[in-house]
Amino acid sequence: MTIEHVRFLNTAPEYDLTYSDVFMVPGRSAVTSRLDVDLRSTDGVGTTLPLVVANMTAVSGRRMAETVARRGGVAIIPQDIPTEVVADVVARVKASHTVFDTPVRVTPHTTVGEAMSLLPKRAHGLVVVVDDGKPIGTISEAEAAGVDRFAQVHEVMNHDLLLVSSTDSPRAVFDALSTSHLAVALIIEDDHLLGVMTRKHALRATLYKPAVDPDGKLIIGAAVGINGDVAGRAERLLAAGVDVLVVDTAHGHQEKMLQALTSVREVRDRLTALTGRSIPLAAGNVVAAEGVRDLVEAGADVVKVGVGPGAMCTTRMMTGVGRPQFSAVLECAAAARELGRSVWADGGVRYPRDVALALAAGAGSVMIGSWFAGTYESTGNLMTDAQGRLYKESFGMASARAVKMRTKNAGAFDRARAGLFEEGISTSRMYLDPERPSVEDLIDSIVAGIRSSCTYAGATTLEGFHRLAVVGVQSNTGYDEGRPLSTSW
Ligand SMILES: NC(=O)C1=CN([C@@H]2O[C@H](COP(=O)(O)OP(=O)(O)OC[C@H]3O[C@@H](n4cnc5c(N)ncnc54)[C@H](OP(=O)(O)O)[C@@H]3O)[C@@H](O)[C@H]2O)C=CC1
Ligand SMILES: Nc1nc2c(ncn2[C@@H]2O[C@H](COP(=O)(O)O)[C@@H](O)[C@H]2O)c(=O)[nH]1
Ligand SMILES: [K+]
Question: For the domain bounded by 104-207, which CATH number is listed?
Answer without folding.
Answer: 3.10.580.10
